[in-house]
Amino acid sequence: MTEGPDPRTPVPRGPLPETPPRRAPRKVELTIDGRPVSAPEGATILQAARELGIETPTLCYLENLTPVNVCRVCVVELEGSRTLVPACSRKVEPGMTVHTDSERVRHSRKLVLELLASGVDVSTAPDFARFAERYGAQPERFAAGATVAQPVKIDNELYVRDYGKCILCYKCVSACGSDAQNTFAIAIAGRGFDAVISTEYDTPLTDSACVFCGNCIGVCPTGALMFRGEFEMRAAGQWDETRQQVTDTICPYCGVGCTLTVHAQDDRIVKVTSPAEHPITRGHLCIKGRFGWQYVNER
Amino acid sequence: MGGGTNSYAEFEDTDLIILWGSNARDTHPILFHHVLKGVRNGARLYTVDPRRTPTAEWAAGWLPLQVGSDIALANAVGREILAAGLENREFLEHATLGLEDYRKAVDRYTLQYAEQITGVPAAQIREFAHAYARADRALLCWTLGITEHHNAVDNVLALINLALLAGHVGRYGSGLNPLRGQNNVQGGGDMGALPDRLPGFQHVENGELRSKFERAWGVAIPPERGWHLSGMLDAMEHGELKALYVIGENPVNSEADQHRTVRLFESLECLVAQDLFLTETARLADVVFPAAAGAFETEGTVTNSERRVQRVRRAVPPPEGARDDMDILIALARRMGVALGPRGAEAVWNELRSLSPMHAGMSYARLESENGLQWPCYDEQHPGEMYLHGRLWERPVRGPRAPLRPTEWEPPVDTITAEYPLRLTTGRRLDSYNTGVQTGAFASPLRMREALDISPADAARLDLAEGERIRILSRRGAVEAPVHIDPALSAGLVFLTLHTPDQVATNMLTVDASDPKSGTSEFKASAVRIEKLGVPA
Predict the structure, then answer these.
(1) Measured between alpha carbons, how far is A295 from B194 in angstroms, rounded to an integer?
(2) Could you tell me if A100 and A135 lie in one domain?
(3) CA closest to B358 among chain A residues
(4) Which of chain A's residues have a Cβ under 8 Å away from the Cβ of B183?
(5) Is A184 among the domain residues?
(6) What CATH number is attached to the domain comprising A198?
(7) What secondary structure does DSSP assign to B167-208, as a single string?
(8) Is B326 left (phi over 0), alpha (psi -120 to 50) or beta?
(9) Minimum distance, in Å, between the CA of residue A214 and any CA atom of chain B
(10) Contact residues on chain A for B433, CB-CB shorter than 8 A
């Protein structure tokens, strides 16, 4: 039998391993709000605007999900285009002239925010109030209209689903589906105003394909999907983010090495998330990483 | 240096992925996200597993082998690659040794012979062999389905042989990856928690390396290797090991053949346990040190399956009386009259960097700003290495050539007989972890009471109803459990986890036969029989 190399002798250091050459993307020149900007080919108007320090409101967009263009709050005016275009998905093209803060854009964003807030409870959407103030949105103009108010769904120990807060941004469907988890426990059911996020046949989550990774909660922009612990603390008036500390650590379970962002209030863990920009998790976790920290509190 | 040769990013940019003895969909869910990206980018996924796992549901090919027949399958794959002339001759001549011995050794593992042993159809083995050898890039990954056997090291060598034959190692998108089951099992080995290594995989039997540590630490280091875990248990049996200090481990529940483990631990003169909870091991201890929860209450680093060292940070303070493992060790050493080196996690890390060349470039500042770093990382300018063993493609080869190491299949130790006709294998479920010390604390909607998974065919043959309580007997012990009829299992195979020892003490059944080289026990292959209790479901 051939013996292995002598493990007592270290192998000397060598050159760095080679990786396939990547062609640097071509640069595309365009103008946003009168300022020239150069963005890599394939980038979106949203990314190019961020390069210039222009903040564009988004609700249905996330870096780690495929854009679905449904919320329409990121729309911008593109010269030569009949309609406003969604900044989150429209790719930059040479010579584009874009206006992100024109009267037409401001008016459209204002109306979209008003219509969303008139039918949906946006009280726990962290960015919504800021956007509404910025665009002078007055949802009460449509206060007499129909709403999606409905009872909260609580069918398990880990999640709460409050679809009275759902703006149908599809993020949870994308995260549960082919963008991350590939479990496909939820989808859009119904049409028009009756469209809802639903499990198959609207069964409780516990009877669905759900594996309780919580990645849908991780991407929800309105708090319609919420960790049960947070929901109960909010209901009891105990949830106070000003008293919370946020610390990144590494999951204690398997050897993948997922970054956990630990939210602790008064020195007790209240929630775990993961950074969307981390190359290992891209913001996504499994049930153990997301929920398996109770043992720390219960000592 | 021992570690996964590739990075998670490469899973998204390869042509073929093999998960051998790994149910990564459930046991490494976020790694499996990268696998799925790879599949969506066109990679073919194969899984080799006795069970049709959730991983297998995503695979282009599922090879349902008999438990413990891995070497027969691997050798048949190797033989077929050679017989079809699909081996990477240039690589074999340039970078490897022992091809002719290997060719002779695998000659009897024809497709038909392998089919008899493994149960995998010959045509499927052939297709698998050709797909692996023909792929431009291929990642071969494994987990405990390979290593929890009495011939664990031979199982791994049989897989390494395949990568060498096909030239699937040392290149971007090609390599060999043990998916680590615990958040710092890689880091533990890296730090020298191995019988024969000092930190940075520096061999304790190399006098020059040892004396470097002796100078730094001001002590003499025993020049011979120590025991691995199974060796320690044997040493207790022979009265050579009389005191044991167990840190963050629950061997009474996690080791095979629990009766023996308890008997040996009770025979010790001194047992010290350091843990978050009063585990069954801690209950036997003479002294228990309450410890802080490493991932949430301490500072330090852990190393993952892609060799990435990442920072662990204190998010909450430990409960009253519980202390950081490191502080306990330092305080204990002081009481024993030894002042251990620098205080604080970063100072200890910097001492390691001064002694372990592969960690030298990993300052805490860089670990913070670069999402961790992959070893080897030799200096502050070094970016860390995405994949290992590129040296085998350098001309001339840097360091020694890689040997093909022939291995012979032998069946599991615990043989199937008329008295014990069923093969019991073990594994993890998605929402639980090891002996459940940590995961038992959260209310998982997925968790059912622990049950013996059994095939529909065996359930029908034994007249068992879903949920019916039965007795499971092995040559070592017996436990009772309900049955769960699982169509993912083929006839003759039953499955249990170690997650709920209070409900089902699975390790009363498992065999303590262990690999002489790695010390790993054969958790994956016990022989059992089932007796009806006559109690309705």
Answers:
(1) 29
(2) yes
(3) A13
(4) 250-255, 257
(5) yes
(6) 3.30.70.20
(7) T-SSBTTBEEEEPPSSTTHHHHHHTT-STTEEGGGEETT-HH
(8) alpha
(9) 12
(10) 253-254, 288, 292
Length of chain B: 537
Tell me what the mean pLDDT of segment A51-79 comes to.
Answer: 96
Shortest distance between the Cα of B406 and any Cα of chain A, in A, equals 7
Indicate the pTM of the whole model: 0.95
Q: What is the CATH number for A258?
A: 2.20.25.90
CA–CA separation, B230 and B254 (whole Å): 12
Contact A85, A45 (CB under 8 A): yes
Q: How many CB pairs under 8 A join A and B?
A: 228
Q: How confident is the model at residue A4 (pLDDT cuts 50, 70, 90)?
A: low
Looking at the complex, report in whole angstroms how far the Cα of residue B184 sits from the nearest Cα belonging to chain A: 6
Q: Which domain holds residue A90?
A: 25-145
Q: Of B316, B405, B406, which has the smallest distance from its Cβ to A4's Cβ?
A: B405
The whole-angstrom separation of Cα A267 and Cα A271 is 12
- Asked which of A127, A145, A163 is the last residue of a domain, the reply is A145
Q: Are residues A225 and A269 in the same domain?
A: no
Contact B302 A262 (CB under 8 A): no
Distance CA B147, CA B178 (A): 9
B287-296, B406-415, B513-522: range with lowest mean pLDDT: B513-522
Query: What number is the average pLDDT over the span B120-134?
Result: 98
Residues B439, B532: Cα–Cα separation, whole Å: 31
Question: Which of B398, B440, B444 faces A212 most closely, judged by CB atoms?
Answer: B444
Number of domains observed in the structure of chain A: 3
- Residue written as token pair 């079809």: B84
The ipTM is 0.95
